[in-house]
Specification:
The structure holds two protein chains of two kinds.
Chain A (H helix, E strand, L loop, with lengths): L3 E6 L4 H11 L4 E8 L11 E4 L7 H8 L3 E4 L12 H20 L6 E7 L26 H19 L4 E7 L2 E2 L6 H6 L4 E4 L5 E2 L2 E2 H13 L4 E5 L5 E2 H8 L3 E4 L1 H13 L7 H9 L6 H7 L7 H11 L8
Helix pairs in contact in A: 1-6, 2-3, 3-4
Chain B lengths: L1 H16 L4 H9 L4 H14 L12 H6 L1 H11 L3 E3 L10 E5 L7 H13 L7 E4 L9 H7 L2 E3 L2 H9 L3 E4 L4 H4 L16 H9 L3 E7 L9 E2 L1 H7 L5 E2 L19 E4 L16 H26 L5
Parallel strand pairs in B: 1-9, 2-5, 2-6, 3-4, 3-5
Antiparallel strand pairs in B: 6-9, 7-8
Classes of the chains: A alpha/beta, B alpha/beta.
């Protein structure tokens, strides 16, 4: 049986590079390519770096020539960060996915698609069940732009999989990731001298450790399943407890003042919060990971609390204030 | 006691003057307190650093113990609760408590909790399903989840039962909390019997529970739907104290309570597939309702006057 041929979009991201390295180490994968405008974080042994922008229609000519059987779509931006406006985020996420699927139409060799999406698609809702399962995306209206974007991306891939009966498409819905080497909205939040919270709210937060985030992706590439799969560490943690473990004081702000005050903080360079993140800080979110464990066969090593503790060990109190 | 408190304050001040952080100074001061008080202070200090556990539902057993004196006071002195039949609640494994519901805040759920913790030979904390709009309120939402409340959703109930927990539900739902004072102790319709479906799917016995007294704590004389819409609540109650006394109107009236746990109704024998059998679901639902209603009338008579 010939080895598998895999294309990874967003190979220049932290997890993208690590994924390429993991697959390189496995002889089952005969050919690897990474597509990104950014150079991979480290020198890759076997994987070929294709410098291209997924928003560029040119990729419809490039991708079919690679003759890959598996596509891992990792180029989804989860949070507006430094140098990334919400407009650019929308462009990469939605237009990028559209162009990518247009290219797939011309690449009949592709049988497996794995998308690293976000559990943000469920939103953060006070009336929600404590654990969303994969069928619950329609329980509440889509409230934020990012939520609508993720729902739209999922919809594109779903439609594509429906029209191509031989293609299996997995949508991984990730809870926010945390880990010693990751720079994410949640780690930036916990590194602040004081962490703003909604006065009177202590929501349940669920996270996934960076190691599990990577290995869940590897496990899914090895054993793809159809449809959506939630990815998160077992258990949840109260926001206040998480802030206390990080060793910083919580700064409770009354609900109506939260937006304006953190907005003013942003102008002072204290970090910014997307609307999704603000809702998460108010209402929290948990997901059910039965499918991940039973169908993909991946059991996360770190619980949510374990992931936070691992992050705290790497960022001892005081050192992270910068 | 005052001596101990003074010694505590003196050591605290010495500690602060010696340049210690506040938590360290408090820890030093606590050495002057009697052992019980010292343990509580140390526990609170540990909590300040995040050393406490919450399960995946956000239930925090230590917090539930810390606030126990408050609910214990309500149980003993405020509402003078008399509980019967706690031993009928299964000591192990999954079970569903189905109770009548009244009072705008889930006080009845907390009193059922205390009754089980006090009277049951093998006490355990029940989890209870709370009307979801309570989870939009600051403080209340946090306190409810820490003492074992979850959003009233069938998914939550099923998952809790599958984890072999004791789960309390109020099948009347918002119809129960929102009924006027004149209809007190007249049970409302038990929805479409969703709680029976869940019990059947999980194979959990249903324990009917009758709570007398909760329906007098917020006597709802009128409803102002326009204000309810404005704040997004299911109804806006007007009671003798609310909204006239402002926040004080939230203080529940001190009625006398009786809680009776009735004989469990077994569901495991029907099998999980029986959850799809509408006739059976409605029949069982009616059986639970009738049992609770009968017990309500009996206990109302036994209790006598509401506030004496």
């Amino acid at each position: 049986m010939p080895g598998r041929r895999v294309l990874i979009t967003g190979v220049g991201s932290h997890i993208g590079t690590l994924l390429a390295e993991q697959l390189e180490a496995d002889p089952d994968f005969e050919y690897l390519a990474g597509l990104d405008t950014r150079r991979p974080r480290r020198r890759l042994e076997r994987a070929e770096w294709i410098e291209a922008d997924i928003r560029d229609p040119e990729i419809a000519r490039v991708i079919p020539r690679l003759e890959v059987d598996t596509l891992v779509h990792e180029q989804i931006v989860r949070q507006p960060g430094p140098g990334m406006s919400s407009r650019a985020m929308h462009d990469i996420n939605v237009i990028g996915s559209l162009q990518l699927l247009a290219a797939c139409e011309r690449a009949p060799t592709i049988r497996t698609i794995v998308v690293r999406g976000s559990a943000g698609v469920y939103g953060a809702e006070p009336h929600a069940p404590q654990f969303f399962n994969e069928e619950m995306t329609r329980l509440f209206p889509l409230r934020t732009r990012f939520q609508r974007d993720v729902a739209e991306i999922e919809n594109y891939f779903e439609t594509y999989a429906r029209r191509h009966a031989g293609v299996s498409c997995t949508m991984l819905r990730y809870q926010p990731a945390i880990g010693p080497s990751l720079d994410t909205q949640i780690s930036r939040y916990l590194s602040q001298p004081a962490c703003p919270t909604y006065l009177g709210f202590d929501p349940r937060i669920q996270l996934v450790h960076e190691r599990d985030a990577l290995h869940a992706l590897v496990a899914t590439v090895r054993r793809p399943v159809r449809g959506a799969v939630n990815v998160a560490g077992p258990g949840t943690i109260g926001l206040i407890r998480m802030i206390r473990l990080a060793g910083h004081p919580a700064l409770p702000l009354a609900g109506p003042l939260f937006g304006p005050l953190t907005g003013a903080g942003r102008r002072l360079g204290l970090g910014s919060y997307s609307e999704d993140f603000r809702r998460l800080l108010r209402y929290g979110r948990g997901v059910d990971t039965t499918r991940l464990v039973e169908e993909v066969g991946f059991e996360p090593r770190y619980s949510t609390v374990g992931a936070v503790e691992d992050w705290v060990r790497a960022h001892p109190r005081g050192a992270a204030a910068a | 006691m005052t001596e101990a408190a003074l010694a505590f304050m003196r050591r605290l001040r010495e500690g602060l003057e010696a340049g210690l952080d506040l938590p360290e100074a408090i820890a030093r001061g606590a050495t002057a307190l009697p052992r019980d008080a010292r343990a509580t202070v140390e526990r609170l200090l540990g909590r300040m650093e995040g050393h406490y556990t919450e399960d995946e539902w956000g239930f925090d057993e230590e917090f539930a113990e810390l606030v126990e004196p408050f609910f214990g006071f309500l149980y003993d002195s405020w509402w003078r609760v008399h509980a019967e039949g706690a031993e009928r609640v299964p000591a192990h494994g999954r079970a569903l408590l189905a109770a009548n519901h009244a009072g705008i805040l889930p006080w009845d759920a907390t009193m059922i909790s205390v009754a089980l913790l006090r009277e049951h030979p093998l006490p355990r904390h029940p989890r209870f399903l709370v009307l979801d709009w309570a989870f939009e309120l600051p403080w209340i939402s946090t306190a409810i989840r820490r003492v074992g409340g979850v959003v009233a959703s069938p998914y939550n109930a099923l998952r809790l039962l599958e984890q072999d927990k004791l789960v309390a539900v109020f099948p009347e739902g918002v119809k129960g909390t929102g009924k006027p004072y004149s209809e007190r102790y007249r049970l409302q319709r038990f929805g479409r019997g969703g709680f029976v479906e869940i019990a059947l799917r999980a194979g959990a016995p249903i324990v009917p529970v009758a709570v007398v007294g909760s329906e007098e704590i917020y006597p709802k004389l009128a409803d102002v739907p326009a204000l309810a819409r404005l704040i997004g609540a299911p109804f806006f109650p007007v009671t003798p104290t609310f909204p006239w006394l402002g926040p004080l109107g939230v203080v529940p009236l001190p009625s006398r309570w009786r809680i009776e746990f009735l004989d469990p109704i077994d569901t495991a024998a029907y099998g999980a597939e029986a959850a799809a059998d509408r006739a059976l679901v409605l029949e069982l639902s009616e059986r639970v309702r009738a049992a609770v209603q009968d017990a309500l009338y009996v206990n109302l008579v036994r209790r006598g006057p509401a506030f004496m």
